Task: structure prediction
Amino acid sequence: MIHNFNKVKSFLVGFFAGGTVAAIATLLTAPKSGKEFRSDIKQKSEEYFEEAEKYLAEVKNKADDLVYDSKKKYSMIINEAKSK
Result:
């Protein structure tokens, strides 16, 4: 389970770092006015936050499933041990 957490953590770091670098490169190379530039930054940041929220919800659901499965297996092991 720790290995999966490290994978998720690594993915999130890479996702945000890559997204940030791409956004900065795109915005800096676009010839726009300051107002348009700030509008683009706001829009992109909102998009990234929405994507992050979706991903975190998915991770939470997977974690909930893992907890449920672990509790189920724990109960089965306890019941088996009691019966012996």
Summary: Residues 2-83 form one domain. The helical segments are 2-29, 34-83. The chain has one domain: 2-83.
